[in-house]
Amino acid sequence: MGNDNCVIKKEIDIRNLYDLSELFKVFGDSTRIRIIGLLMDGEMCVYHIADNLNMNHSAISHQLRILRSAGLVRPRKDGKTVYYSLDDEHVEMIFKMGLEHIIHKNGVVEN
Amino acid sequence: MGNDNCVIKKEIDIRNLYDLSELFKVFGDSTRIRIIGLLMDGEMCVYHIADNLNMNHSAISHQLRILRSAGLVRPRKDGKTVYYSLDDEHVEMIFKMGLEHIIHKNGVVEN
DNA sequence: CCAACATATGAATATATGTTCATATGTATA
DNA sequence: TATACATATGAACATATATTCATATGTTGG
Asked: Any chain A CB within 8 A of the CB of B27?
């Protein structure tokens, strides 16, 4: 890593670095991260998400759209209601990794 | 996970969720993620970071301050120059995990 | 078809945030 | 001490973004 032989890898990084920041930007909002936190426990419909977070359904819908276009969550329609779930295990991993960092920095918080 | 027995864990999550979004917010800027990308290869001084990114030294300094107060980078002073490096291995992990997600989503980009 | 419901979308507003410019701090060298 | 250099900081401006309100789309049941 870091030697100039690795030109291909460097290309990938440069090309994807902007996308990477965009990805983290999606995680970087308290409403969205709370939505992700809820979905860690399984799928949930818009109504219940909004209810859990004590927020406007519209606001949640807007945020879900952002999460959806970032490929972080996936909708499943059943009649009138739409259930959302985390798209893949990377999302959980990134979430958990961040949480570990926080806990590590704050000192161990476990009780 | 998700059952109401896990009150302690829930407490932790709720308390740390805002901090978590703040953490990702720091990753969620293209300048800062490029700085982190550079520091993946080892420590580097402000001058060279700015040079590498073709940016104002002031802008870099501002962003380094944000990275510093988030605990993502660490300064080492040597005479006039200040060298920055990634603070701990969590930072690299989060970076790599995100990159994997991007590459996974884009389809395999290798070569 | 109509009413009730769940979700989505668009426009508007208020707030947050990144970069620039000017200037300050701190360090080495003449 | 004076000058040059590396980095840091503060204010200002321009842009991005989250939430709200109003409205639209789509679905179920009467």
From this structure: yes
Strand residue runs (E) in B1-111? 44-45, 73-78, 81-86
Chain B window 65-84, residues with Cβ within 7 A of nucleic strand C: 66, 79-80
Are the beta carbons of B13 and A88 separated by less than 8 Å? Answer: no
Domains, chain B, with CATH or none: 2-106 (1.10.10.10)
Residue B45 phi/psi, 5° resolution?
-85, 165
Provide the token pair at A45: 């419909």
**Cβ–Cβ under 8 Å, residues B89 and B102:** no
CB-based contact B105:A71 (threshold 8 Å): yes
In terms of pLDDT, which residue wins out, A11 or B32?
A: B32
In terms of Cα–Cα distance, which of B85, B72, B91 is closest to B45? B85
pLDDT tens for each residue of B34-56: 999 999 999 999 999 999 999 99
Contact criterion met (CB < 8 Å) for A101 and B109: no
Neighbours of B104 (CB within 10 A): 13
Output the pTM of the full model.
0.88
